[in-house]
Amino acid sequence: MKPIHVGLLGLGTVGGGTLTVLRRNKEEISRRAGREIRVVQAAVRDLEKARKYAGDDLSLTGNPEEVVDNPAIDIVVELIGGISPARELVLKAIANGKHVVTANKALIAKHGNEIFAAAQAKGVIVAFEAAVAGGIPIIKAIREGLTANRIEWVAGIINGTCNFILSEMREKGSPFSEVLAEAQAKGYAEADPTFDIEGIDAAHKLTILSAIAFGVPMQFDAAYIEGISRLTKEDIRYAEELGYRIKLLGVTKRKENGIELRVHPTLIPARRLIANVEGVMNAVLVKGDAVGATLYYGAGAGAEPTASAVVADLVDVTRLHTADPHHRVPHLAFQPDQLTDLAVLPMAEVETAYYLRMRAADRPGVLADITRILADLAISIDAMMQKEPAEGEHQADIIMLTHVTQEKNVDAAIARIEALGSIEGRVTLIRMEELKG
């Protein structure tokens, strides 16, 4: 059988890794796919730099339009990232009748609905396993492996940069700014780390997982996003003393009146496996009604881990290249006409437990005032810790863990607590998740 021809848009870290894996495991991949998968053309920014990857059988061009218009190419692999020109190139490839493989989480999270509709109309496949959690096959697990289940919730550590920073802050007791600089020096964080540390990258990935888990359209604009830049080493230490670890967590849950879609720092019991995921590694917990909680762990980024997912998609597309489009696995797990418009719940309606830290005057009656406010708003305290004031100081840190309650109640309580004359500054709020299986 003749080889399937692939065109790459981008030959950087992931593109180079994809080419390396395809060449190194050529025989094994061909045996699985049923035919050879051959990269015949690549669009690159730097032709000279790319020649070290190319070899004699790979045509290079500086114009990505040449790849998407090349009639000899069956599958276009988009690895340039960002929204534009990636969106235009992907849509043009689809219009030309080519299948698409992409690692572009921002593109899928923001424009996936449009892209999947175009692919459906043209009868081609858009595969995007590499867009979430690098080498972990989490898309396939939810979309295919857990297809018998009604997914109840998904919770994941899906940004390695943030996980590295939080791991180092806990391990070394260092402040955020110091560990961020270390992450940048090691190449784990970009010069402008905003997308990672403010939770945007994780929200792109969570949007995709939510859509597949619950059969809803992509709803990135409705996601709640909070990063880790305001976390202090004190909160990480206090959480540890209370038996918790702080992780940047993406959480999506099915509720009676909608779905939760939120990214934020989260206290997780230290005894949970996911709480012990350290460094740049990723992990995703998926709770199904039949299977219970399942955990997926591995490298969330890097040349070859991400290439592993790209090549897996290439094999899938190759196998299904000639199949009836109606017999393929739907892009979002559910048949396109069976997607539901479940609304994303506002944060005020989210229900979870909370960590509250406040700086309070060290005098009688202060704690009674705080607990009275919480009681008035039906917020029950699960645990409390008061730190001794430093020598010469008259304020102490009070840390409270609440039972599950609605966020609007906690917001109202915080407003009233901050208005007390005995409270100095703002109350720190961090959400908590038990993640029971």
Written overview of the protein:
This protein has about 425 residues and is α/β, with parallel strands linked by helices. The protein folds into 3 domains: about 170 residues, Rossmann fold, CATH 3.40.50; about 160 residues, Dihydrodipicolinate Reductase, domain 2; about 80 residues, ACT domain (Alpha-Beta Plaits, 2-Layer Sandwich), CATH 3.30.70. The chain is built from 15 helices and 17 strands. Helix 5 packs parallel to helix 6, helix 6 runs parallel beside helix 11 and helix 8 packs across helix 9. It starts with a strand and ends in a 5-residue tail after the last strand. The model has no long low-confidence stretch (mean pLDDT about 95).
Features:
437 residues; alpha/beta; Rossmann fold; Dihydrodipicolinate Reductase, domain 2; Alpha-Beta Plaits; 3 domains; 11-stranded mixed sheet; 15 helices
Short description:
With 437 residues, this protein is α/β, with parallel strands linked by helices. The chain has helices at 13-24, 26-33, 47-54, 64-69, 86-95, 105-122, 138-145, 160-172, 176-185, 194-197, 200-214, 233-241, 303-320, 366-376, 407-418, and strands spanning 4-9, 37-43, 59-61, 75-78, 99-102, 126-127, 151-157, 224-225, 244-255, 258-269, 281-288, 292-299, 351-361, 381-386, 395-402, 405-406, 423-432.
Q: What CATH architecture of the largest domain would you give?
A: 3-Layer(aba) Sandwich
Broad structural category: alpha/beta
Continuous helix count: 15
CATH class designation of the largest domain:
Alpha Beta
The proportion of strand residues reads 25-35%
Give the CA-based shape.
elongated
Arithmetic mean pLDDT: 94
First-residue to last-residue Cα separation: 47 Å
User: Biggest sheet, open or closed, and with what strands and sense?
Assistant: 11 strands, mixed
Instruction: Count the E strands.
Output: 17
Q: What is Rg?
A: 24 Å
**Fraction of residues in H or I helices:** 25-40%
Question: Which fold name is given in CATH as the topology of the largest domain?
Answer: Rossmann fold
Write down the domain tally.
Answer: 3
